[in-house]
Amino acid sequence: MKYNYCLSIILCLAAFGSCGTPKATGGSGFPYATTWELDFISGTRIAFEGLFPDRKPVLTFNAGEGTASGNSGCNGYTAPVEISGNRIEFGQPGPSTMMYCGPGENQFREMLQKVNRWEVNSNGKLTLLLGDIPMLRFKKASP
Questions:
Q1: Which listed residue, 31, 88, 94, 113, has the most CB atoms within 10 A of its CB?
Q2: DSSP string, 105-125
Q3: Which domain holds residue 108?
């Protein structure tokens, strides 16, 4: 009986301990403090230029705050992000501006929620992947 009681307490503590806002962890080799501009998005039938005719999404990671922020091609956003090694996880974005946007914004935000890995290739492009499948690719934005 004591064993079951102790096991129950341990499981409850583990469950509550796993809740919370994701945070970025420094020292992972991740290219923080760089603004990235989207140049590829997977899973759409519409040409990239058609998804983002006026403005391409941009993304900046802030290690100190554990957030990613930018513009989704139309509206601004900020979302919690957890980066550890080559793993990445975006939390739900907070409040953003509320302009009407085309399908590109929703596609971009949905892809951010799906990715779980990152890599920077030899050309300096940041790719966000789902397993081994490239979902989003970014180039360094011009200053």
A1: 88
A2: HHHHHHHHHH--EEEE-TTS-
A3: 21-140
CATH code assigned at 82:
2.40.128.270
Task: Please indicate, yes or no, whether the overall pTM of this predicted structure exceeds 0.70.
Answer: yes
Nearest to 48 by CA among 140, 115, 136: 136
Q: Write down how long the chain is.
A: 143
CA distances from 16 to 37, 74, 88, 95 (A): 37, 36, 21, 25
Q: Is residue 55 part of a domain?
A: yes
DSSP string, 8-48: HHHHHHHHHHT-S---B-TTS---TT-EEEEEEESS-SS-H
**Tens-place pLDDT, residues 21-45:** 333 334 457 888 899 999 999 988 8
